[in-house]
Design brief:
With 196 residues, the protein is mainly β. It is 0% helix and 36% strand. It starts with a strand and ends in a 7-residue tail after the last strand.
Length: 196
C-alpha cells in the first residue's frame, strides 16, 4: 500500500429527529506499507431535533506474508559455483538466507548431474531456523531436515554437477531457485586430485 490522502468510511448524518449512522470499517491488507494518509471511521452526527450520534467505526491492518529472499550463494563458495574441480566427494555448500518479514526460514537444495534437475542425486530440505549463514554438506545428518532424495553418509561419484537452492519461510512461502553458475556446470568431483 502506497500513496497519501484519506480513506473514509464515516457514518451518515441523521435527519431532523434520527440518530447518526455508525462509522464503517476500513480494512487494510498489505505486504509493504508506505501510505502516509489517514483512514477515518467517525460516526455520523445526530439530527438537530434529537437522537444520538453514530458510533465510531474501526480500522484494521494486516501485514500479509512475503516470500523469502532468494538465497545468497556467498563469495566463499567460489569453488563450487564456477565449474572448478574438487577432490572431495562430500563437498560443503555455503549460502545465506533472509526474509523481508524476518520469519524463520529453511532451504531446499538440489544437486544433479543434469542441468534440468529432472532426477536429482540430492534433494534435501532443512529445518526452520533464524535467518543468516547456513551450510549443507553432502551426506550430512538430518539435523531436523529431510532427504527427499539422497541419504545420510552419501557421497558423490566423480563427474560434473549442478546445484540450486531456494528459501522457504515458516508460512510455506518460497523464493525462486537460484542456480549456481547460471545453470552451467557448477563443480566437478575428481577424487583423483587427492591422490599423490
Amino acid at each position: 500500500l502506497a500513496g497519501s490522502g484519506t480513506m473514509t468510511a464515516d457514518g451518515g448524518v441523521s435527519g431532523y429527529l434520527g440518530g447518526g449512522g455508525g462509522g464503517g470499517r476500513v480494512a487494510i491488507y498489505y505486504t509493504t506499507y508506505s501510505y502516509s494518509g489517514t483512514p477515518t471511521v467517525t460516526g455520523g452526527a445526530a439530527g438537530a431535533g434529537g437522537g444520538a450520534a453514530g458510533s465510531a467505526g474501526s480500522t484494521y491492518t494486516l501485514l500479509l506474508n512475503q516470500s523469502p529472499d532468494v538465497p545468497n550463494i556467498t563469495s566463499a563458495q567460489i569453488g563450487l559455483v564456477n565449474g572448478s574441480s574438487t577432490g572431495t566427494n562430500n563437498p560443503v555448500f555455503n549460502f545465506s538466507l533472509s526474509d523481508p518479514d524476518v520469519d524463520t526460514v529453511q532451504y531446499r537444495i538440489q544437486i544433479d548431474d543434469s542441468a534440468d534437475f529432472g532426477s536429482p542425486i540430492v534433494d534435501y530440505t532443512s529445518a526452520l531456523a533464524a535467518e543468516g549463514a547456513r551450510t549443507f554438506q553432502v551426506g550430512q545428518a538430518l539435523g531436523g531436515g529431510a532427504y527427499l532424495v539422497g541419504s545420510v553418509g552419501q557421497t558423490l561419484s566423480n563427474g560434473s554437477y549442478y546445484w540450486r537452492i531456494k528459501s522457504i519461510d515458516a508460512a510455506a512461502a518460497a523464493s525462486a531457485y537460484t542456480t549456481a553458475n547460471g545453470g552451467s556446470v557448477a563443480f566437478v568431483v575428481d577424487t583423483n586430485l587427492l591422490q599423490t
